[in-house]
Specification:
Elements (H helix, E strand, L loop, with lengths): L1 E6 L6 E9 L2 E10 L8 H4 L1
Antiparallel strand pairs: 1-2, 2-3
Length: 47
């Protein structure tokens, strides 16, 4: 399987990484730096 997820501290820059399962291990490919905004309750209803 494949998962794409931010890796790093909650505050500041994180690395967006693609993790691919190969057998019993994972291969990591860094995609780039990101700053993710936490999801806030009620905001999606406004958008």
């Amino acid at each position: 399987g494949i998962v794409i997820a931010p890796i790093g501290p909650e505050e500041g820059e994180q690395v967006l990484a693609k993790l691919t399962k190969v057998g019993s291990r994972f291969e990591r490919e860094d995609i780039g730096l990101v700053r993710l905004q936490p999801i806030l309750r009620g905001v999606a209803a406004i958008i």
